[in-house]
Write the structure tokens for this entry.
Amino acid sequence: MAPVVSDKTATVVFDKNRYSVPPEHRTSTLTVVASDTRVRFLAGQDCVAEHDRCWGRKQTIEKKEHRQAILENKPGARDGQGRRRLVDAAPRIEALLEHWLHDGRNLGSMVARTLKLLELYGAVVLRAAVDELLDKGSHDIGALAVLCDQRRRPQKPRLPVEFGPHVPDKDVRVHDLGGYDD
């Protein structure tokens, strides 16, 4: 048990990670009780938040209801966690963001478009599409959308094309093309 202070964003730093607490407890002193598997935050004797313990470093662990309560209390506010959501879904997205920044693109717009892809196709499809796009050496947002769409639809097997005996040019004879070079 140790005292900790919640910051203005209703998060508490414990063991080099950031844990969310309800917004009514921001900028207040709480008591942290941690085990090997759980982290609890107490205000007096009342448990105000409980999370699975994260053994990573510099991770943000938050509950949706905590974030939602903050957004509801601030009219006109929007969730500025889009970039973090993208990194959680597709870790290599950082390289894509670097390319977009280097090209002078509006990162807010690019993050919003990529978040839309995340909502439409899910994390697994987006992660695979980002990996394929970067492996191809590209960083176009349109190509990312196409790759997501291709991965969502099952690929139809290619059927062999067979011509009947009545087709005279069904077999193409390969010949040396060197005679065309001059």
In short: DSSP finds six helices and seven strands in the chain. The mean pLDDT is 87.
